[in-house]
Amino acid sequence: MNERILTVLRSAVPGCALVLASAAAQAQLAIEITGAGANRMPVAVAAFEGENALPRAVTDIIRADLERSGLFKMVELGPSPMGANAPVDYGRIRSRGADAVAVGTVSPGGGGRYQVQVQLHDSQKQVSLGGQAMTMAPNQYRATGHRIADFIYEKLTGEPGVFSTRIAYVLKVGSRYELQIADADGSNAQTALASKEPIISPAWSPDGTRLAYVSFESKKPVVYVHSLATGQRNVAANFKGSNSAPAWAPDGRRLAVVLTKDGQSQLYSVNADGSGVQRLASSAGIDTEPSWSIDGMIYFTSDRGGSPQIYRVSAGGGTAERVTFEGSYNVSPRPSPDGKSLVYVSRNGGRFQITMLDLASRQTQILTDTSKDESPSFAPNGRMILYATETGGRGVLAAVSADGRVKQRLSVQSGDVREPAWGPQPRN
Amino acid sequence: MKFARLTLSLIAVGLLAACSSAPKTDADQAGAAVEERSSGASTSGIDNSRVVPVDAGSASGTGIAALKDPKSILSKRSVLFDYDSYVIKSEYQALIEAHAKFLLANPKMKMLIQGNTDERGSREYNLALGQKRADAVKKALSLLGVPEAQLESVSLGEEKPSCGESTESCWAANRRGDMLYSGEF
Q1: What is the mean pLDDT of residues A171-176?
Q2: What number of other Cβ atoms are within 10 A of residue A254's Cβ?
Q3: Chain B residue numbers touching A168 (CB-CB < 8 A)
Q4: Least CB-packed of A124, A184, A240, B155 within 10 Å?
Q5: Residue B147 domain-assigned?
Q6: Domain containing B115: what range?
Q7: What is the pLDDT of residues B132-145, one digit of tens each?
Q8: Does residue B101 sit within a domain?
Q9: Which of the pair, A151 or A23, is modelled with greater confidence?
């Protein structure tokens, strides 16, 4: 009890948001790997020179990020620091089994800030793969660690890392609901909205500054647009009937929404401030779950053909085209960031599972072995899919890689987590 | 030792109370609808001053108090549906008729119909299915003459189940439309 109070006091100095985060420590997301990639690359992150001056070693964050990605096997080199500019004994690194090593130096940079320099070396080719330099305030060890992990990830895989991103999700404890935002590693959970009524369908604006979501606080579903930095929000859709399923257009100015104001659930678009409502598609059944693709198509769920299937229509209007043809229940479409594939939820013999469809080859692959999957959300690099499921009767989040190999589970100590949404790359 | 702990607790509470700049929105304070508003009989500090409202011009037993009277059919507010069905079963005909009659006799009263589903499947698709249930109840009432202006049908999808287990009987209890009157929403 004493320790928790001390933690609150220590965190109170930089700002109030951190006090909330500490108080919410019990609701912190814990992330565990439950399945790793088949061929994990062995890499080492040496202790950085001078990082003991920081409240926490930045290399702790880097190693945890790389390990959690499921693509790397961390090789321990021991406690001796290896500076950014010191010559590297490639033979020693190879003999420890590491194909690559990251070395670095943390030095005082004036004004209480620190300079960080990193170098990444390929121990097989015996060359430097490149370096990074940045400055940080001492309490930015997390953000700095994530940034360096992104740098290493990109150098070694050729893809951008997502360690500096955030995720949104809904936490239900008893009859309380909280829309929370945490770092991609589950740290720094903060509450954007607390309510006695349900919150569903959070959606990040493309610039990462706003969340759209559906709140039932007025005893019916209403779509809000909420600015995270200020806590200010406006109603984006509250027509007669139900208003739900917000999805941002790539330009961040409009949302696709589902309204029942004219009868059954149908697709409309509306400006973020709630003005300018326009019909997007029409059918005699239910149209719902719109999701914009980078190529200007909107994927959605419709039961116009008798059973819920996935369709797509151009955002500019036109005829909708059916996309799924196997099985009798295919819902919750989310196109990949590059627009080349689609994840969705299919029901197979009573099991609801995240499924991947390659849009060119039309091949499908069930990615999970859980059976109550819902709400898939792509990481902005298209490599991982975050989704909600149930384990042991409790709502948890899980993530699976696009090839189905890497698996993670994200859980809280008490309560149910659901409705995840992976945020965009931060714009620095 | 105990004093130090108490002091630390007080300081922590003080700090937490002083934090007003965190951008956390509380739906309860943001002017959103309060969960419960009482309607019907009011009580004052004096005993025996309870007043039961009687609706002039209506037959006895169909006044506003009947909405909460367990002996009145009007206190029953739920229509249950079969799996994958949006058809109102004949066993609910009398209930629908009673509520239609009440709404016609009380044109200032509004009704919110909330449709619900069981928990299986996508939340948003279930929201749309719940809407179909609410719409079915609304249509049945309007066919009996209740004006559109008195009715709103919305969906709660799977979000507010009356029964929390993953069993057939719970699922059946959750496939329903609920009728709420002005003052209850």
Answers
A1: 95
A2: 19
A3: none
A4: A124
A5: yes
A6: 60-185
A7: 999 999 999 999 99
A8: yes
A9: A151
